[in-house]
Amino acid sequence: MMLRYGIAALALAAMTGAIAFHQPATAGTESPKIAASAHVYDTYCAQCHGVQRNGKGVNTIGLSVQPRDHSDTVGMSSLPREQMIKAITDGGASVNKSALMPAWSAVLSKEQIEDMADYLTYVCKCNQGK
Amino acid sequence: MRGLAVKGPLLLAASTAVAVMALAVRPASVGAQAPGSELTSQCASCHALTKPADATLDRLWSRKGPDLWYAGDKFNRDWLVAWLQKPTVIRPGGVLWFKHAKPGEPRDTIDSAAVEKHPAVDAATAGRLADQLLSLKSDGLVPEGAFKPEAANAAMGKLGFSKLRGCVACHQDAPGTGGVSGPELYDAGQRLRPDYVIAYTRNPQQFDPHIWMPTLTLSDPDLQRITGYVTSLGKESK
């Protein structure tokens, strides 16, 4: 009886914990490409764009410009794929956005950047209900 | 479903345990060409003392401490000797910022309690370790004399660091001022060799192809100014 109660309490605590702590986007059942891009995002993008992809990364404390919120369906829907790829490859200044967004072409391959554009479309749920 | 819910905290507990284990100074065996045996026994369990053969993204994620295989190009001896006796947190986000970031409002924060603490050693050991660390060279990644002190302009460098080139987005140039995913630079003048700062900034991926510091398209005058500014930091306080 006590044991069962204990297990239930443990499960509750575990579930609370799971909600309280961010679950990386790699945890689900997405395709391998999406999972790989999520891992790349966690390594390079989340420092400014946030672990929840909402533009609220740890580094925004030192930024004069708010990074783009990738979870914003409306805002992201108006962004052409080619422009995402250009911004990631050559930096924000190349698309008349903030120079605080650096060029990632020295770190990520062309294929990784193209996959990231697909991942961003997935994150913002931009291709749904159209 | 319950199994899935339990998984998160379990993983968290496991990774905390790994982090705690990483703090313990343990001997570890590395390659036969490894540097000094004391350095190997004291440092190799967390730091790469030779250039990693498998510089993958997974290797980066499993890193317990910053790479030291180019320590001789990177550090000033006086700083090393003092720091090893009384270590401070250089990386406000921890060794790997992405392992300590947690969501929050108005922004994500670092779980500071989880940030690794470096063990301290006594003065004699610090001196010996510093000498051994200074013998670790990158073999050509840090050309001597690349930084030209006469070309430096600290005021222009500060402008580049803070505004024009955005270094401050990831690095603090004063305690509490700047981003947290990169190492603090407010004592960089004591800690780092200028030729290293300019070489690393020019191309961080030469040192680790997957490091999260991007390669900015900086002109040589830009690099000179920013290096001049960064290596002026913290000098007056010592």
Envelope shape of chain B: globular
CATH topology of chain A: Cytochrome Bc1 Complex, Chain D, domain 2
Q: Report, as a whole number of angstroms, the end-to-end distance of chain A.
A: 52 Å
List unreliable stretches of 5+ residues of chain A.
15-26
Main β-sheet description of chain B: 2 strands, antiparallel
Number of individual domains of chain B: 2
Q: Helix/strand/pairing class of chain B, anyone?
A: mainly alpha
Alpha-carbon Rg of chain B, integer? 19 Å
Tell me the structural class of chain A: mainly alpha
CATH superfamily of chain A: Cytochrome c-like domain
Q: What is the radius of gyration of chain A?
A: 18 Å
Tally of DSSP helical segments of chain A: 5
Query: What is the largest interface, and how many residues per chain?
Result: A-B, 38 and 48 residues
The total count of strands of chain B amounts to 4
In whole angstroms, how far apart are the ends of chain B? 57 Å
Give the overall pLDDT of chain B as a whole number: 87
Which CATH-level-2 architecture of chain A?
Answer: Orthogonal Bundle
- Taken as a percent bin, the fraction of beta residues of chain B is under 5%
What would CATH call the class of chain A?
Answer: Mainly Alpha
- Summarize the biggest pleated sheet of chain A: none
Summarize this entry quickly.
The complex is a heterodimer of chains A (130) and B (238). By secondary structure, chain A is mostly helical. Chain A is 51% helix and 0% strand.
Detailed description of the structure:
The complex is a heterodimer of chains A (130) and B (238). The N and C termini of chain A lie far apart (52 Å). Residues 15-26 of chain A have low confidence and may be disordered. Chain A is an all-alpha fold and 130 residues long. In chain A, helix 4 (81-90) crosses helix 5 (110-123). Chain A has one domain (25-123): Cytochrome c-like domain (Cytochrome Bc1 Complex, Chain D, domain 2). Chain A is 51% helix and 0% strand. Chain B has 238 residues and is mainly alpha-helical. Chain B has two domains: 2-134, no CATH class; 149-230, Cytochrome c-like domain (Cytochrome Bc1 Complex, Chain D, domain 2), CATH 1.10.760.10. Chain B is built from ten helices and four strands; from the N terminus they run H-H-H-H-H-E-E-H-H-E-E-H-H-H. Chain B has helices at 2-23, 37-43, 57-62, 71-74, 77-85, 123-134, 154-164, 188-191, 194-202, 220-230, and strands spanning 101-102, 109-110, 172-174, 177-178. A two-stranded antiparallel sheet of chain B has the order 1-2. In chain B, helix 7 crosses helix 10. Chain B is globular, with a radius of gyration of 19 Å. Classes of the chains: A mainly alpha (130), B mainly alpha (238). Chain A binds chain B through residues 11, 13-15, 17-18, 21-23, 27, 39-40, 42-44, 46-48, 50-52, 56-64, 91, 99-100, 102-104, 106-107, and chain B through 2, 4-10, 12, 57, 60-61, 93, 97-98, 101-110, 163-166, 168-170, 172, 177-181, 203, 205, 209-212, 214-217.
